[in-house]
Structures are given as C-alpha cells and as structure tokens.
Amino acid sequence: MKIFKQTSIVILILLVVIGCDPTNKPAKGFEDEIYVVADSVEFMEIKSAMDSTFERIINTPQPEKIFTLKRINASAIEKQKLKKNIIIAAPLNSGSYTSQFISAIVDSSVESEIMKNSDFIVLKENLWAKNQLVAVLSAPSISELKSKILRNSDNLLYTFQKFSDDRLFSNLYNSTYEQKNIQGKFLRDYGWTMYIQADFHVAINNPGENFVWLRRAPGSEMERWIFIHWIDNATPEYLNEDSIKVIRNRITKKFLHTNSDGGYVVIAEDYLTTTEFNFNNRYALFTQGLWDLNIKGMGGPFVSYVFYDEDTRRVYMLDGSVYAPKYYKRNLIQQMDVTLQSFRTEAELTTERKEELLNAIED
What's the rounded mean pLDDT across residues 2-13? Predict the structure, then answer.
C-alpha cells in the first residue's frame, strides 16, 4: 500500500459541523477512491494540487495511484453521500454551488476560523455514514485554497490513509476466524503476537533464528506472506536504511528461496523508500519497495516496519509481501500493511487478551 507515511497529524480537527444526518448505514465504495465535491471551473484551478496530494504513484511494479479522485457537482452529493472518502472543496463566498453548500453545512465559527487560519481544515468522521471521512477544504480565495492543499499535502494524505487503514482492519478482523491458537503460541514462546487470518498458515517457525514466516495461498496467482524477525540484545543503532537492507536480504536469502534453481528473494533497487513512522508510540522506519528473485522471473511489492522495543531490548522487523502478477496490488499490499500494524508485544496486551490467547493454545 504503500503508500506514503507521516509521523504525526498537524491538521486542525473540526469543532462543529451542522447539518449532520446520523445514520447506521455503512460507508460504501472502494478504499482507494475519494469523491471530490467541487464546481468544474474551481476544480480545474486546484486539480494539480489535489492530484499531487492524493494521486501519488506507487509501483507494484506497475504504477498505481494511492487514491483516485472522482469529481462530482454539489447537486450530486445526495446520491454519493454514503461514500467512504469525501472532500468538499471551494473558496468561501465565491458564489459557486459548492461554496454555498459549504456555508450550509458549517456554522459561522468554523467559517471564521477558515478565514483567519490559513491551515485550518475541517474533518468530520461518520457525517453521513459509519466509518466515513469527510474533509472540507476551503479558504478566502482559490489561490489560497490551492496553497493550503499543497502546504498540508503530506498530512492530508496521511489522514485519509490512516482512516482507510483503520476502516480496513475493522473489516478484516473477525474474532471467529482469527487463529487464536497460533497467536497464543507466539505470545507464549516469543512474547509477541499478531492478528492471523484463518487462511494464513505457518510455513516456517524457527526459534533459533528468531524467524517466523506466514503464508497465504502459496503457489497461487495471488500469494501473500508475512515474516517476523527479531534481534535480541539489540540497540537502536540498527534503525538505519543500510542496516534494514542488509538484515532483510540476509533473512530472505536464508529462508525465502526456491527449491531447485538457487533463487532467493532480494530487495530490488528501484522504487525503494524509507521514512520515519510512529509504530504504536515507538520510533520506527517504514520501508516500501519491490522484492525480486536474484535470478529474476518473479517479483512484487513489499512493506516493512523496523523498530526498537526498549522493554525487551529487541529490534523487530515486520515484513509483508505480495505476489499477484495478473492483478492490481495496491489494495493487497494495504491489507498486508494493516495486518503488520496489528503486531503487539506482551506488554501491550491487556490481561484479558493474554488469557484469551494463552487459553486457546492446543498443544
């Protein structure tokens, strides 16, 4: 997925929105679509800023957009108000239908804040549907609106991504189908756990090498896998881009290899990026890129988190990959990313959750 990551949100959150229509209906649509309510002329003025913010390209290896923007007129909002991601964009008091719509749904105090605070952005969750995110982007003029979007570009993208991740995990998580037995064994034996869907299986569990490999649909045209590796008695000095490359290539060469021709997984040099990330209140490095075989012939996207846990003095590497050559992979790699973010050490679990998982162990 992935997709771009930021460490924090500096956008101001909405204080009041009026005209809400509370509903129990779930938000609909694709995770990677954002509906933009804007007049056609005004949208053309801000389109380049919106595109560069939300339609950034990831390579999987084919180029795919993080989000796809779909403009609609304000008159069409009633038909699309249940969509998962909505942005309403127009200058205040421009006279356009969208500008009038903004004035109708926010109160005077919010309008005043928009006029005087150049970075104020209105965000509202569950406005017209459950698990929906609506943003109002406005400013005194169209040029100021464009500047606001560009100035807050990274955080706007992060906000919609984070909300999408949370929404996706709530859809993926199902206590009935999670493999509590396996999760409990990892907790008992290693002091950590992660949400494991029913269709994943443990391909490798090597305590001597501190390595676990989980696979889904091996040998199929839509394979996914996750590995967890940790280094004991470590220090935060491992948290640098060069170390991550070395550790990952060493691990994949040892464990992720073909059976007959000497092939093994390596990091492809193209499109590799590493950024800082807040992983459950820990400083982490988030890496996204492409994996390849040293003998070529296979490849796909991967995402990885590396962080230092002070309580256990361990460095953890959490890694998710996709192999689906005939399919778009943006949403698949987001699923891997969201699953990795379910990782928790024993210290992060409640007593009830620990008991639940440990009691599920079947020896």
Answer: 44
Length, in residues, of the chain: 363
d(CA 333, CA 2): 7
Q: Are 53 and 36 in contact (CB under 8 A)?
A: no
Burial class for 272, CB neighbours closer than 10 Å (0-12, 13-18, 19+) = middle
> What CA–CA distance (Å, rounded) separates 285 from 282?
10
Question: Which tokens belong to 25?
Answer: 């209906």
pTM for the full model? 0.89
* Residue 81 vs residues 92, 129, 130, 335: alpha-carbon distances, Å: 21, 8, 11, 25
Structure-block tokens of residue 240: 């640098």
Interstrand relation of 57-59 and 68-72 (parallel, antiparallel or unpaired): unpaired
pLDDT digits 0-9 by tens, 285-318: 999 999 999 998 789 999 999 999 999 999 999 9
The torsion angles phi and psi of 53, rounded to 5 degrees, stand at: -80, -50
d(C-alpha 363, C-alpha 360), whole Å: 10
Alpha-carbon gap, residue 155 to 137, rounded angstroms: 13
Q: At what angle do helices 40-54 and 142-151 cross, to 10 degrees?
A: 10
